[in-house]
Amino acid sequence: MVKKQTLHIALVGNPNSGKTSLFNSLTGLNQKVGNFPGVTVDKKTGTTSLSETLTARVIDLPGTYSLYPRRMDEWVSYKVLLNQDKEMKADVVVVVADASNLKRNLLFCTQIIDLKVPVVIALTMMDIAKRKGIKIDTGALERELGVPVIAVNPRKNKGISLLKKAIDQTTQHLYRAPVRDFIDNRALGGEAIDDVKKNIPHLSDYTAIHYLINHESFDLSGSLQDTIESIEVTNNFNPTKTQAEEILQRYSRIKFIMQQAVSEPDPRQKSLFTEKLDNILLHRRWGYLILLAVLFLLFQSVFWLAQFPMNWIELGFAKLSQFLSYSLPDTRWSDLLINGVIAGLSGILVFVPQIMILFGLITLLEDTGYMARISFLSDRLMRSVGLNGKSVMPMISGFACAVPAIMSARNIENRKERLLTILITPLMSCSARLPVYTILIGLVIPQTYLFGFLGVQGLVMMGLYLLGLIMALIISYVAKWFIKIKEKSFFILELPTYRSPRWKNVITTMIGKARIFVTDAGRIIMVISLILWALCSFGPGNNMQKVKQHYEQLKAGPQANVTQLNKEFQTAKLETSYAGRLGKSIEPAIAPLGFDWKIGIALITSFAAREVFVGTMATLYSVGDNDKGGLLLKEKMKAAVNPEGNLVFNLASGLSLMIFYVFAMQCMSTLAVVRRETRTWKWPIIQLLYMTGLAYLMSLLVYQLFK
User: Fold this and answer.
1) CATH assignment of the domain containing 159
2) Long-range contact list for 617-623, CB < 8 A, 24+ apart?
3) Which domain, by its residues, includes 44?
4) How confident is the model over 588-640, as pLDDT tens digits?
5) pTM beyond cutoff 0.85
6) Which residue from 74, 99, 216, 273 puts its CA 20 to 30 A from 300's CA?
7) Within its chain, how far is the Cα of 662 from the centroid?
8) Residues 63 and 189 both lie in one domain
9) Are residues 194 and 160 both part of a single domain?
10) Helices 138-145, 102-114: crossing angle, 10 deg rounding
11) CB 106 within 8 Å of CB 95
């Protein structure tokens, strides 16, 4: 059996050049998604077979326009290409170039070729170039560039075998980097280049220029850093002037290449379908109405489509828990399994349908080209509060679930704007708040109508959603003055042509995002679930045992209503547990909000997931499975009175509790994902504190106004 060699391929290219499609075509489902060390930038790797004896490990580097990085993700690509990444050493660089926008793409291509690394050019979007009337002679282009140029169509899997063959031949040195550079490096660096190469002999002239410009960011010894710094000073090397002169030289050379290999139509040619469609979708008035309609459909689709698999998952786990409770002995370990492990798994997997559906729909919008239009239209409003146009999708997605919404904030390049988006997205009223709103509105808001058709209950519900959105924008405006991340915000956005979606890409993305959530955030969720189980299952001293003995004696008595006593036992057990003690201990703090200790327990237990509030209320008010659902629960809650004889749930306390759930974090899944995305506990803690403080103050204000 022949042992296969493993090759490392770096896949690079401009944004929207078809790079991700090519990556998916090469690797299929043989992918892993992680993070580059020290930064929250997706590290997508996969494997592919090039020949019987050669396997390739492909890494999909973040998109970048040139070898002069500005954003964090561009620095990741830059360091790999300059051989400054300790983990990733590329044997071959595959540069993906958009044939329909070749002049701009050739800037990056020629820069990488001048690094004198093994390069293969994958030419995508040939069909779009053809529709634009652009004709490319790939043979002539290959001669001018001096490296293999392969036309590919990842959507239809065309040209992939030829690309693999070209990569294989390049590794065998059948193709070599051209000796001549595309620019006159001597005119740019001169003696400074020679001095750098004396200290690092293996560098090309162009690579030496980048050492002069960015050596401070490279992993070099202290003495070598000092040497390069002195070379800069001695030769009066000016990085800004050098970069400007390089770009001018390079585009002069690219103009000649285009004349030799590319035939373009008259620029006065009739507008394409994309331009005509943009006249409608980017219209000053109609564009915003269409945007609102698209976002409404996106949100509703996530909510409508996800509720079926979510219900199936919940029902499946409920049946499993019921089966295990009847099958297993009544012991502590079985309680841990059912109410700890199984409940924790349920809390993780129930989010998966929303994550998959949301990212599937977002991928559809990206593939069709409309996602860039959404960012363009919303940029002005977002920028006024410290965000940018790319923040709108995570915020809107937060109405369904903050977990996938925060994960989708990765496409925001500016670190400050991305962090602000992450910090305010949980203020959007997610679907988990809906059960809380529904039961509380039904309790304290009368079912009356304004003008005969506007339901007051519906208006209150809409008001809660709008309140979260408005407060998110206010918080962002305030927070932008306190977050001291000095990074220029560039909203450079390419509007790609409209295309039909790639269903294989959609499915791959959905599976990948679900896997990230389950494996990364799921571990933290499971730990917190087990902690919550322990708080509800154990109590101080032997109080829990005393409660159990007391109810066993009652059940042994004549004419004992065992079913009712079991319900009361569960309530007493919860009250005696550490969670119950916590509820009692925080009662003085939450009493000014109109909450009693039972609501305090619900606030604690619903930290696992907000909708747990309803289940906790059901247990506390002794509503069993045989009671007919929420109706009886509402009646019990409506009749509940405090020791003073006043209703626990009146208009003031009901509104106060609704407002608390609008603003409070109350979601360990979200905190887990924020920890993963920011790679520190600092921001989740800040987020928890500011949202809890805001919820408390606003609830206090509402309760004092309405009591």
Assistant:
1) 3.40.50.300
2) 617/439, 619/570, 619/571, 619/574, 620/571, 620/574, 621/571, 622/564, 622/567, 622/568, 622/570, 622/571, 623/567
3) 5-171
4) 999 999 888 888 888 887 776 676 676 666 656 643 333 433 345 567 777 77
5) no
6) 273
7) 22
8) no
9) no
10) 40
11) no
